[in-house]
């Protein structure tokens, strides 16, 4: 039974990898637009929180950032490390660091990063304001947070309707956590909204 469970677990993880890396994802995810929200990344340190397969990690590294790929699942971090090795001809090895985090803490050091990105991750968080406060502490003064998550309504991708977080709710939570200059983009992506804020 244990072997069967292990096989199922491996297959389940492989299915997630295929979903996250599906070539069709770029059509609705528009990664270029999302990365552009972070402005000029050259020389910046960025936390990719909920990095998964590194879909955004490597795109940001290609733009000149040093990226800390953060996830609670060590399998994803191992996957990113393998891909990093494969991409050494494009991205310097020290451009991507992996970090195992906790469900309630990204484990960022104080003032460690210039920016943080959470894509398709925000709705998984339980105590979101508390989590945002920890992200804020990890940002340098003036640092930027960008959140991408799913709009309400029936769509072919995304989580069940009951777990989605509305842009208004997310905005309120960012304000409660002390973020400023909140901007909301509900039209740039087909199935998702983008919210950004800065640390004072």
UniProtKB/TrEMBL annotation:
One of its GO terms (molecular function) is methyltransferase activity. CDD domains: AdoMet_MTases (cd02440). Keywords: Methyltransferase, Transferase. The keyword Transferase applies. It comes from the Bacteria. SUPFAM superfamilies: S-adenosyl-L-methionine-dependent methyltransferases. The keyword Signal does not apply. Residues 48-145 form the Methyltransferase type domain. Signal peptide: none annotated. Pfam families: Methyltransf_12. One of its GO terms (biological process) is methylation. This is Methyltransferase type 11.
